[in-house]
Every structure is written in structure tokens, then in C-alpha cells.
Design a protein that fits this description.
Two copies of one chain form a homodimer. With 344 residues, chain A is α+β, with helices and mostly antiparallel strands. Chain A contains ten helices and 13 strands. Chain A has helices spanning 3-16, 64-80, 101-118, 169-184, 198-205, 211-219, 234-245, 260-269, 273-279, 295-299; strands at residues 26-28, 35-37, 43-52, 85-95, 121-129, 135-144, 160-164, 226-230, 248-252, 285-290, 304-311, 317-320, 326-328. In chain A, strand 4 (85-95), helix 3 (101-118) and strand 5 form a beta-alpha-beta unit. The interface between A and B is large, with 82 and 82 residues. Strand 2 (35-37) of chain A pairs antiparallel with strand 3 of chain B.
Chain lengths: 344, 344
């Protein structure tokens, strides 16, 4: 169905019909000039992400439902990275004429699924036409106990540096998807080869936010001193934490968690595995620091690994390689401002 | 300066340097995964707008500073339309390679000026490259006393329908700017002709949100029963209010406030003046209803005019023309989902 057939309000009505409200703080959702929230007990967290077709996603291999899911989840990840709980999102879409109502419903079904799984209410947004493909802008509002908000600036000398999950897999998934896209060019009935690499594809197309880690830390009564989610690569985020806290760090190459599929794929592509894990980006794992005395407790948190420690600032930021030498960390993560030419 | 020279974080640092914080509810602004807000006394309002180059603005005649100002103000307008006060905004930008650092600073200077004038803190955002011109997504967070939030659904039979300011001028300003753009095509040293029409140009390029009206209503202790801001045209918004409240309405053609510059321009262009005032859009005036007993009080509010009244739903929504006939109101406002072809 052509979107112009429904018009803006018709499309919004259709997309937002029967939207559930699960949070007590959502007083009024979609359908007025503003959403109305009520939240007397806790601090409010606000984060926003802008995703543009051709820059952040390629619809050749990204299914719209996955795209919707991921667009929501990356915002939830930012809220968890403050030690908060995501509660509401607004979704703004710019839609070009090649998209039908069914396409947008598919995208929305992914957003709604993410909201359902993470207990978040969709409370508003803006819908407009676009001359240039799909534009997705999501803002997420979360809450956190005022004395438990974790900023990126709190890391102190001797703190332990921890990461959840494993790193580099989403980046390798992207390489794999790009390789298969290139291989498919001009071919009919092309069957992409993902056998044995499903994990990489899933990490790229359908990342999850680490609510489980936040809950596990709470259960162990561990309050991180600093925390971020890893969206631009471990190196880049760790440098942010060190700069914000005016500290240095040492991490150990042999402690960086890497899945075996990531390792196999790096070998296949002739890429440096550790570089991919340090700079790959889009992992949406949590990077955080805890006081040294939490050393035993942190072992009890499933899926979390200590990869190094915070130092005095004058020691700089470095990785100790397997052969014992020091390699200065540099931010080589994905640059979202890499020059793109106007296509118009 | 090329933006790639600074990179994402360099650009953000430069744009957000010395950002003032004026609201007690802003605990932590730019520089972490989320902004942190604290707001124990009031309800929280959230609104968002997505503006795309080529759809919502034409940089041929829109100065970047004005564009920044307007992008912020249209969000503030949504918060005032709930009877709230805007407190924080997040600003996400998609920037293509033809923009320099100076361009983006110019845009930001307009956003910062709007924030300064309206007392709003800029607390976060996202900055990325774009393949397709400039993308601006702004989310505004406001606050309102829980028992004073005005939804669009509260209008009741016999309520008076009020509008602030005058209507149709922003639309006429757009027509004028488009006319001068067409006239300038291919000409060097073209001087656009705006004499005697400065008000129209200003209404299009630099609208203001009606904080003054909200303050005046508060002073007169008038709490509207329903309220919206007029962004898509009076007809369209009034139909929203009637649908949301399950009521009808009668407005009077001869009461619709129109500036004389708007009237002169409509005549010059051979356009129907009332159609422009009803459907023009981008007025950012307030449309609201008050109980009949407020009739005398509302006269004291400067710049507000009673244009009609709410009826029972079975009477429908109509305008009484100057010759006394009834004309059914229809939403013919600007359609943001009008088909735009992909340019890529």
C-alpha cells in the first residue's frame, strides 16, 4: 500500500494502534503534542541516536524488522550503560517513496518487539517524507536511582577494568555480510554462505543490550565506578573513560574476550584479530570499572571478564601484548563523520 | 574547515564548549551515554521533530542560524501547547560533506540562541555523517504541574475556541521566498524584493513559541480545556481537537486573525486568503478552548482572539462564512508524507 494513501495521521494511527503501556511512569503516550511522564522517585536519563540509510545500515542485507529492533536496542544499551532502566522511547522516521506501508509496519514490528522484551513504552515521535531513503531517530528515556547513576568519569587508580560478552563479532559479521553482498552482485538466486558463522551475523543484525549484566551487578551489590557501552570499539571507549576520569590504564591482550567464530573469520579475511576486537565497534557490550576490592565478587558475575586495571594518568593508556610489550591505545573506531558525498 | 579534520568528538567538543546549564533539573548534560535529569515535583513532557533538507527546509534561502533557531523553537512550541515549560533538548545532526565546521557552528549558534532566550539546556545528541544533505532531529523535554497539563482531548460543548497571534503569514512568507528564489534563477547579484513584507519572511524563517500567552493565561488563572500548537494549519488542528474530545465546532470567518501583510500577499499571488489562514501551517500559534464562563477574562489576554465555540459532536465541524453560510472544515494542511522520490 502506498503511504500517501493513508497520509501522516493514517499511518501513525495504524502503526501505533494498541500500543501497550507497561510503565507506571507513562501517563500519556502517543497522540498529543508531547508525551507525559511522571517519575518522582528517580533520576531521568535521556539518550538519542540518529540512523541514516547508506551510512548506518544497508537494506540490501538488513531486514527491516531487525533494523527496527537494533535501532531501539542501541538506545536501551546507552541507558543500561548509566546503570539505569529504559522506560520510554520516541521514534521519528523519514520515509522515501520507495517504502510501502507494509515496509514501515515491518520496521515498527521490530521496534515493538524490542520494547516488549525490554519493557519499554513507545510514547511518541514524528513521521515525515524523505527524499533520500530511510531516516530513523530514536530518543530513549530511562530512570535510575540518583545515587546509583554511573557516569564515565568515575574510574580511579587501581580499579579493575571489566567487559561483558565478547568483542569484534559484530564487526566481523559486517565484513561477512559485505563479502556476501559483493559476491551476490549480478547473480540471480544467490545463496549467501553463513554456515558456522551465524553468531557473527546475529551480532551484527540483532544485538542485545546487557540488561542481564546490570541486573547481575545489582544482585552482587557491585556499583561500577565508571561505565559505558561499547559502540565505537573498546579502544575508543576506554580512552573516553580514561580522559573523563583523568586516569591511565593497562589492559592485557590475552584477556580480551573473543568468540572462536570471530577468530576464524578474521583468519579467513586475513585481518588482525585483536585490532578487530579493539576497534570493531557495534558490540553493545558493557565496559566498566570496579574498585579493586570487588575482585572476588566480580568473578561471580557470569559473562564478565577482567581485562586490566586503571593506573595513574602519567602512565598513559596501553595494552600489554602477548609477548609482554606495551602498545599505546588509539581510537581507531568507526568514524561516523567520515566524509560522505551528497547524493543530491 | 573540513569536518573530517575535527572528527566526531572534536566537532562535538567544539559545538558544546561552555554550554550553559540554567535549569536545576539538569544534573548532567552533554558528555556521557545519557543526560541525567532530576525532576521530583512535576510531570515530564517529551516531544520530538525530524527536519530533512529538501523536505522541510531549503538552504537556498534559509540561513543556517535561523534554521537552528526554528528547529529548537518548534519543539518548545509543542511543550507550551501542553501548558508546560521546555527545560532540555537533545540535538542530533546528520551532516553531508558539503558542510564545513563553520556551517555547523552557524546552525548551532541559532539553536543556542533559542535555548538562551527560552531558558532551555542543551543536554545531548548524536552527530553523524549523511549522504543526503542536512538532517536535524531535536527532542525536547519539558515540565508541567501534573494537574495543569492540557491535553488536546478536553474540549467540551459550549467552550470558546481561541487562537493567539495571526494565521497564514508563515505560509505567505514561504510563497514569497519561493517566488524570489524562482526569480533569482540564473541571475548574478539578484536582490530579493521583501520591502513591506518583512513580517511574512520573519514568520517563516524565525517563528517564536508563545510562552507569553501561556504566562498570560497563568496570570489570569485560565486553564484551557484543550490546547495544541498550530503547525499544520488551523483546520487540521481544530479537527484533531474535535476528534480527540468527541465534539463539533463552529468558527467564524470574520474572526480569524490575519495580518494585513498576509492579506496583501494573498492578493498579489491571487490566492484565497482564508484558505491560506486555515491551511497554511507553520504558524506556531496556540489554538485552545476555554470554558464559556471565561469569556470576560480571556479578553484580558493580549494577542488572543475568540474565533468560535465547541458544539455537540453531531453538529460536525464548520466555519460560518461572511455571508452566513456553513462550510465544513477539512484538513488540507501541509502533508509531510507527500511522495518524495528517492534521489539516490
Amino acid at each position: 500500500m502506498e503511504i500517501s494513501h493513508l497520509g501522516e495521521f493514517g499511518l501513525i494511527d495504524r502503526l501505533t494502534k494498541d500500543l501497550p503501556i507497561v510503565n507506571a511512569s507513562t501517563v500519556k503516550g502517543v497522540g498529543d503534542d508531547c508525551a507525559v511522564l511522571r517519575n518522582k522517585e528517580s533520576d531521568i536519563l535521556v539518550t538519542t541516536d540518529l540512523l541514516l540509510e547508506g551510512v548506518h545500515f544497508d537494506l540490501t542485507y538488513v531486514p527491516l524488522k531487525h533494523l527496527g529492533y537494533k535501532s531501539a536496542v542501541v538506545n536501551f544499551s546507552d541507558v543500561y550503560a548509566m546503570n539505569g532502566t529504559p522506560r520510554q522511547i520516541t521514534v521519528s522516521l523519514g520515509i522515501s517513496s520507495r517504502f510501502t506501508v507494509e515496509h514501515i509496519e515491518e520496521l515498527y514490528s521490530g521496534i515493538r518487539l524490542a520494547c516488549e522484551i525490554y519493557g519499554v513504552d513507545l510514547v511518541g515521535g514524528d513521521t515525515t517524507s524523505s527524499r533520500q531513503g530511510l531516516v530513523i531517530s530514536i530518543t530513549c528515556i530511562g530512570e535510575a536511582q540518583a545515587d546509583k547513576v554511573v557516569l564515565r568519569s568515575g574510574a580511579r587508580d587501581t580499579d579493575l577494568i571489566c567487559v561483558s560478552g565478547d568483542l569484534g563479532a559484530a564487526y566481523m559479521g559486517l565484513q561477512l555480510l559485505e563479502r556476501e553482498k559483493a559476491a551476490s552482485a549480478g547473480q540471480k538466486d544467490f545463496e549467501p554462505q553463513f554456515q558456522g558463522k551465524e553468531y557473527l551475523v546475529e551480532r551484527q543484525l540483532k544485538p542485545e543490550a546487557r540488561r542481564d549484566v546490570i541486573e547481575a551487578l545489582e544482585k552482587e551489590a557491585i556499583l561500577p565506578t565508571a561505565m559505558m557501552d561499547i559502540s565505537d570499539g573498546l579502544s575508543s571507549e576506554l580512552l573516553h573513560i580514561c580522559k573523563a576520569g583523568n586516569v591511565g590504564c593497562r589492559i592485557y591482550e590475552d584477556r580480551i574476550p573473543i568468540d572462536y567464530q570471530t577468530a576464524i573469520m578474521a583468519e579467513e579475511l586475513g585481518m588482525n584479530l585483536v585490532t578487530a576486537a579493539l576497534n570493531g565497534g557495534e558490540d553493545y557490550e558493557l565496559l566498566f570499572t570496579v574498585p579493586l576490592h570487588c575482585h572476588e565478587q566480580i568473578q561471580k558475575v557470569a559473562g564478565v571478564k577482567v581485562i586490566g586495571h586503571i593506573t595513574k594518568p602519567e602512565l598513559g593508556c596501553a595494552m600489554i601484548t602477548r609477548d609482554g610489550s606495551e602498545l599505546a591505545l588509539r581510537a581507531q573506531g568507526w568514524n561516523p563523520l567520515a566524509a560522505h558525498s551528497d547524493s543530491d
